[in-house]
Amino acid sequence: MRTPWVLAAAMAVGLSACATDTLSQDKADKPAATTASTASAHDQKPLPPGLDPTVDRDPFPSTYHPLPSHPTAIVGANILTATGVEIDGGVVVMVDGRIAAVGPAGAAVPAGAEVIDGKGRWVTPGVIDGHSHLGVYPSPSVPALSDGNEATDPNTAYVWAEHSVWPADPGFDRARAGGVTALQILPGSANLFGGRSVFLKNVPAITAQGMKFPGAPYGLKMACGENPKRVYGSKGRTPSTEMGNVAGYRRAWIDAADYTRRWDDYHAKIAKGEKADPPKRDLTLDTLMGVLKGEIRIQNHCYRAYEMATMIDISHEFGFHIAAFHHTSEGYKVAALLAKEGICMHTWADWAGFKMESLDGIEANAALSHRAGACVIIHSDDPIITQHLNQEAGIAMAAGNRIGLNITPAEAIAWITLNPAKAAGVADKTGSLEPGKMADVVLWSANPFSIYAKADKVFVDGALIYDRRDPRFQPRSDFELGQPGEGAFQ
User: Fold this and answer.
1) Which alpha helices (H) appear in 344-405, and where do they start and end?
2) What is the CATH number of domain 126-432?
3) HEC string of 277-302?
4) DSSP state, 160?
């Protein structure tokens, strides 16, 4: 008998900082003036962590701890590994929260492991929603919970989505029932620079930090096109045009480059034993500096081909890399360029035409771009679609196959598993069924691309967190406890 679901208590994490200075040689070997200068510099106290952006880059660390698990083997299922391999009637073994083995029928199962009969069913990596607003635009959708857009300035890179995430959003439970084991939560797209994204494990928790994916890099949400110029143009402010958008990006990166240089100069002087005055810390420029140093990944809302090309030019101008474009209705027009630049593209299966910049969206966008070599991702940007990303990928695959592209399920499964992990910078940890990776796994009732498929069992780090037939493993948000409709997923 398994233990019913329990929430692990969050652990308090203390922050500390220290600094040690040593002289490169004995004071007696130096001229008196140099010795005095160095001694004066060594009297300089280190900055508190909150005043030096390089001391503590993660002041809100993850407190996530995997739930207890036991060795488990799924036997006889059809397996899509997300590495381009499909195994009929194979075996997936999970031990100590990791994938221990993936192989054909007859592969060894550890003694004492629970064996789940997967015959007639399918196994995939956990679904990853690379563009979600769950928690920051939660249900119920009321003004008191609408915390996804700090629409007060074109550059709000100083805000962090995790500080708006409401873990009790019932949408997380709905997504889990759809096989979603991880999500990237983004600020909205009102601004040129919307703020930092956060990557979450889709597990019930009291705090966002209790969901925070350990070691996942931050993203910076940027936005092209209609939204920033509409929001600020309607207020009589800049940007109000496409050229105003581009000028706003460039001015911000110029400021960020100068800020980075000033902090680098300060630390170089301190390292040489020289006295120096630190720059004033700026939370907006901290985030942009993190991008320039390769620590924070650009997640760029951008529909149109020419806008994506412009953003790539800007990235070359200032020396940063764009991890992914989001929505990319015209991705198929620049798919070869995206492949060359190593930029992933998030898109929908068939959302198009709902505003001018999405007018040229086509159903075969994902498939055409995939065939051109681009890293394609099917995302949701929606609390309903996130429950059906497997079927969204099926729609996109079918659209490509209708025009002769012959996309296989072994290829298409990466659109909702491995590729969003790549774009978020965690593909070394999750996103595919490979030994050593986190055991984020879904057992489906049928081919996951079928409209009839349902997630039967969902595992995160090898722990069963959802079972369609067992209410003990259907956790409910605090917000919904005791309300009518419990058991709706069964």
Assistant:
1) 365-371, 389-402
2) 3.20.20.140
3) CCCCCCHHHHHHHHHHCCCCEEEEEE
4) B
Domain parsing of the chain, residue ranges: 126-432
pLDDT tens-digit series, residues 153-165: 999 999 999 999 9
H or E stretch at 481? none
Which is it for strands 127-132 and 122-125: parallel, antiparallel or unpaired?
Answer: unpaired
Query: Which DSSP category does 47 fall into?
Result: P
Quote the CA–CA distance of 60 and 54 in Å, as a whole number: 14
Pairing of strands 98-103, 86-95: antiparallel
SS3 category, 323: strand
Angle at 427 between CA 55 and CA 185, to 5 degrees: 65
pTM, two decimals, is 0.90
Residue 15 CA to its chain's centroid (Å) = 25
The secondary element (H helix, E strand) that includes residue 251 is helix 242-271
Instruction: Give the other-Cβ count within 10 Å of 193's Cβ.
Output: 28
Q: Which long-range contacts (CB under 8 A, 24 or more apart) does 451-454 make?
A: 451/391, 451/394, 453/122, 453/390, 453/391
One-letter amino acid identity for 126? G
Q: Are 364 and 404 in contact (CB under 8 A)?
A: no
DSSP state of 385: G
3-class DSSP assignment, residue 465 = strand
Return left, alpha or beta for 168; rule: phi > 0 is left, psi -120 to 50 is alpha, else beta: alpha
Average pLDDT over every residue of 403-424: 98
Q: Reduced to 3 DSSP states, what percent helix, strand and coil does the chain have, rounded to the nearest 5?
A: 30, 20, 50
Question: What is the rounded radius of gyration, in angstroms, for the C-alpha atoms of the chain?
Answer: 25
For 113-163, the pLDDT digits (tens) are 999 999 999 999 999 999 999 999 999 999 999 999 999 999 999 999 999
Structure tokens at 265: 């100069």
- 209: which 2 tokens? 């930090």
Integer CA distances (angstroms), 104 to 70, 92, 411, in order: 22, 9, 19
Q: For residue 460, what are the β-bridge partners?
A: 463
